[in-house]
């Protein structure tokens, strides 16, 4: 796990000096730079596999022609090593970087399908002056791109590092701002900065002589693409297959030359990983010490399940005062504005304070096994909208004019009524932050309206979802997981110098589970997952589901709020009673001021 950056097609100048320090937190163990007259590659290393100097990057091929910078882990590197050795390849070290370098030289883009892991890399050919860049199928590891003068290309693991390479003031991408207001994050491939894009997940980019071409190389696993074919599989067969696939994924994600820990909530996903992992794992949980925070505190059952499986457990009881003290460092770690990420930042800090460099997380289980309330509510909303039919827009007009029509929930419902019926629109209503009308009013109030003809904020995400629960799984995977949970988890864990591994966000796992009928895989209560883990005790499985949340509502409603953030000005009638709306605007205001010099203040009337 590392931080990478590079500049291709122009003199290196001071690129490494500008960018390297901005990536230092991602790799405190080692630093490296390679450059020639037309290229510069930068690397910061967090040593996980092959802790010796033989894992140093940028890593050169034995002949010196190719240079590789790589961020991530290749979990099946031992298997790939054996295949290469059978062809006569020799290796000096024991890590995955050396294997990846040899594999890419041998197979190029055609070899990406064989990789199991999370990765973002650049392989540079110094003789041909060309490069191959790629990301893993889910986009667990980030890669930001910016094209420059004369066909040059720069890239980095974090947006802030890429901005540091250019002394000019970056400009706001207004359409991305609109999408943030709609969803609470910026959907890829866009970013909040004009001219900077993310290489999409499961895509590779070829750069040669100033020309950049982007190609998909790995389609999303079928389980996220909404496979609907009924294979006739029985429930018992589905349980056996799920158990085998989970055991395989957890074992793959335990490959490490340093100890591996676990982020443990009181939920089924992380407890499943604990049950399948080797005994004696070090686990970490966050609890809360505040009046009224009992409904948020999972530390009791988390500690009990940790003891059941013989884990070495460390809880953190977070007070409002501690949250206030940590807030500036958390905000400084945000790579793009997001309403999420504080939980990962806190627990990652806890893990590194106890000497850990790697931790597992149960992220992705709700998307894979149907655990969110959205799996019930979104199809209901869609059916309700279809029944209303052409009466939707007139009903929306009436709701706007009701005395309580400015309330957040009613605003989202009116947005659903104004649009044609679809599962995607229903999902936007359920998961949305501000309605399309509210988003337009906020942008106009700040004088930051998107250009005419730009796609509506609610249209971000791409593609039309299949129907039913499998369609919700596709939406949760391609929107919430991809655009919010994965980017936030990466940047907040790496802010503490911690590698976060996600056994439930694994293409091999999901391909194996794809033949399971959706009715079984997405059954209420994540029943398939529960049935696959008979060693989980009854008291744990029979507890009411309690989603992990932070007590932001309590903190923000407190007149002496410990979260000292400034709320930007908003037009009259925007409902800010829901805490998540206030939090989202405070975080947005802070990020825009710090990184783009933009203040969300009322625009003067013409």
Automatic annotation (TrEMBL):
InterPro entries attached to this UniProt entry: Asn_synth_AEB, Asn_synthase, ASN_synthetase/amidase, AsnB_N, GATase_2_dom, Ntn_hydrolases_N, Rossmann-like_a/b/a_fold
Reaction it catalyzes: L-aspartate + L-glutamine + ATP + H2O = L-asparagine + L-glutamate + AMP + diphosphate + H(+)
Residues annotated as transmembrane: none
Domain called Glutamine amidotransferase type-2: residue spans: 2-210
Keywords, in A-Z order: Amino-acid biosynthesis, Asparagine biosynthesis, ATP-binding, Glutamine amidotransferase, Ligase, Nucleotide-binding
Pathway of action: Amino-acid biosynthesis; L-asparagine biosynthesis; L-asparagine from L-aspartate (L-Gln route): step 1/1
Signal peptide range in chain numbering: none
SUPFAM superfamilies with a match to the protein in the record: Adenine nucleotide alpha hydrolases-like, N-terminal nucleophile aminohydrolases (Ntn hydrolases)
EC number(s) per entry: 6.3.5.4
A Pfam family hit: Asn_synthase
Gene3D superfamilies linked to this entry: Glutamine Phosphoribosylpyrophosphate, subunit 1, domain 1, HUPs
Family (UniProt): Belongs to the asparagine synthetase family.
Name recorded for this polypeptide: asparagine synthase (glutamine-hydrolyzing)
Organism per entry: Cyanobium gracile UHCC 0281
């Amino acid at each position: 796990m590392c931080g990478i950056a590079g500049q291709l097609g122009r003199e290196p100048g001071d690129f490494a000096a500008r960018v390297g320090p901005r990536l230092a937190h991602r790799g405190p163990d080692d630093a490296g730079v390679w450059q020639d007259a037309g290229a510069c590659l930068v690397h910061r290393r967090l040593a996980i596999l092959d802790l010796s100097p033989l894992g140093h990057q940028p890593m050169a091929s034995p002949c010196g022609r190719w240079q590789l910078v790589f961020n991530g882990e290749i979990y099946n590197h031992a298997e790939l090593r054996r295949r290469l050795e059978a062809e006569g390849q020799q290796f000096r070290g024991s890590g995955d970087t050396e294997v990846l370098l040899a594999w890419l030289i041998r197979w190029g883009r055609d070899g990406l399908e064989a990789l199991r892991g999370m990765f973002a890399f650049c392989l540079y050919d110094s003789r041909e002056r060309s490069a191959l860049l790629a990301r893993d199928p889910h986009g667990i590891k980030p890669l930001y791109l910016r094209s420059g003068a004369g066909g040059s290309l720069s890239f980095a693991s974090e947006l802030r590092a890429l901005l540091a390479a250019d002394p000019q003031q970056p400009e706001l991408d207004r359409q991305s701002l609109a999408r943030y207001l709609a969803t609470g994050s910026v959907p890829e491939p866009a970013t909040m900065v004009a001219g900077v894009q993310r290489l999409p997940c499961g895509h590779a980019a070829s750069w040669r002589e100033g020309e950049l071409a982007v190609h998909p190389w790995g389609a999303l696993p079928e389980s996220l693409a909404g496979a609907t074919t009924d294979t006739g599989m029985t429930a018992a067969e589905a349980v056996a297959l799920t158990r085998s696939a989970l055991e395989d994924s957890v074992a793959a994600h335990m490959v490490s030359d340093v100890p591996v820990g676990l982020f443990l909530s009181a939920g089924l996903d992380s407890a499943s990983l604990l049950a399948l992992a080797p005994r004696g794992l070090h686990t970490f949980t966050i609890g809360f010490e505040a009046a009224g925070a009992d409904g948020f505190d999972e530390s009791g059952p988390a500690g009990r399940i940790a003891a059941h499986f013989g884990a070495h457990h460390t809880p953190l009881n977070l007070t409002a005062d501690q949250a206030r003290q940590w807030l500036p460092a958390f905000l400084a770690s945000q790579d793009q504005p997001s309403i999420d990420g504080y939980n990962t930042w806190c627990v990652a800090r806890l893990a590194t304070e106890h000497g850990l460099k790697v931790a597992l997380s149960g992220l992705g289980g709700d998307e894979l096994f149907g655990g969110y309330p959205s799996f019930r509510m979104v199809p209901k909303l869609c059916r309700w909208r279809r029944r209303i039919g052409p009466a939707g827009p007139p009903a929306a007009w009436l709701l706007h004019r009701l005395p309580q029509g400015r309330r957040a929930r009613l605003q989202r419902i009116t947005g659903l009524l104004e649009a044609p019926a679809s599962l995607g629109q229903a999902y936007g209503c359920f998961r949305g932050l501000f309605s399309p009308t509210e988003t337009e009013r906020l942008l106009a109030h700040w004088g930051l309206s998107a250009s005419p003809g730009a796609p509506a904020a609610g249209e971000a995400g791409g593609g039309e979802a299949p129907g039913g629960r499998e369609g919700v799984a596709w939406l949760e995977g391609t929107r919430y997981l991809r655009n919010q949970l994965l980017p936030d988890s990466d940047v907040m864990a790496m802010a503490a110098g911690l590698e976060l591994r996600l056994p439930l966000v694994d293409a091999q796992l999901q391909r194996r589970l794809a033949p399971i009928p959706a009715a079984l895989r997405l059954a209420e209560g994540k029943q398939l997952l529960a049935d696959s883990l008979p060693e989980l005790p009854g008291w744990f499985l029979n507890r009411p589901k309690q989603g992990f949340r932070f007590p932001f509502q309590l903190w923000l409603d407190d007149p002496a709020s410990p979260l000292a953030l400034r709320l930007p000005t908003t037009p009259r009638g925007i409902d800010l009673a829901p805490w998540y709306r206030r939090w989202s605007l405070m975080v947005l205001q802070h990020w825009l001021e710090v990184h783009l010099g933009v203040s969300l203040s009322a625009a003067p009337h013409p």
